[in-house]
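General statements about sequence and structure are easier to judge against a single worked case. Part of our work consisted of pairing the sequence of a single chain with a tokenised description of its backbone. The amino acid sequence and the backbone structure tokens for this protein are reproduced below.

***
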Amino acid sequence: MTAAAARLDEGLAELDRSDLRRTRRTLDSPQAAHVTLAGRTLANFSGNDYLGLANHPRLKDAAHRALDEWGVGAGASPLVSGHSRLHAEAEQRFARFAGLPRALLFGSGYAANLGILATLAGRDAEIFSDALNHACLIDGARLSRAGVSRYAHADVADLEARLRASRAAVRIIATDAVFSMDGDLAPVARLVDLAERYDAWLVLDDAHGIGVAGATGRGSLEHWGVRSPRIVYMATLGKALGGYGAFVAGEARVVEWLVQRARTYIYSTALPPMLAAVAIEAITLLEEDRGLVAALRSRIARFHAACRAEGIEPPASSTAIQPLVVGSAARAVAASQALAERGFFVPAMRPPTVPEGTSRLRVSLTAAHSDEDIDGLARSIAAVLAR
């Protein structure tokens, strides 16, 4: 055994001792409100399929049609020959949906955020990053070679003080719009105001807001009623919109600069055309069926009411993400396992995904859950936490 290999073994052993080793679970069914896992059917409160579209018949039909017409792979990067009519149509549809001038299709939200920050920033830039930002924003800031200033979570006063003190040639505020572990909202309207007053870009990651926030599910820009040429807006397709990939939208010059300089776009094979077709269909479905967003909101209200009925203080979140902080990693893992025994798939979120001492059950609600699913979950949570 070499020293290098022994180091890995010790690292894995330490994860085990700390209850921090992650385990992949192999589903034997599609994503849905109920899934099959290890031969058992569980009510699924683990994923980000907030509108129940991941296995929707219309999205599957769109994928089949695109496969028949376009085949499987794009075959090349977008700037070589991988950019199809379907990709172009998806970008145009999303730009209209989000109310922004132009959009660009990326392989994933992670690649999109890395591309945005590395392209807009450089050594003469300073990135102002919310303390609870997702890993892709953190890594994008690191890779950009810019200076990074981490401001207290959603603290506008702290952010403004840092902006006021900055002497950087380029300033970038980077934040989740809906935070993935707490379900809370960034103060987007006030961030837009700061971006305009301090000559900064506002990079807004709406992975968990698109399809969920706003009166018609168009995301956090609709929720806050904001528009600004300062906004560089990223939204994923793999959560509420049921597919895979991500869009970046904003002013035409910003998107063109990303086309020319974003390495995660230029040097990646384009998404399979069928995923562009799925994105188009998801947007169409969301525009046509206002009941999807209304159903999700009714499930959120139902969960809060069910928690109160069981003597549990419901999370403060108004989004599909409903965290129940239990403290230690060991307690979170034990609670998750106990819920699985009762027929509910709820993951335990532990460091480094969340801060030390704030391990939690992350309940993800979807429009496809029934009242019985939600009431049963609340009863089971009460019983498990009481132990």
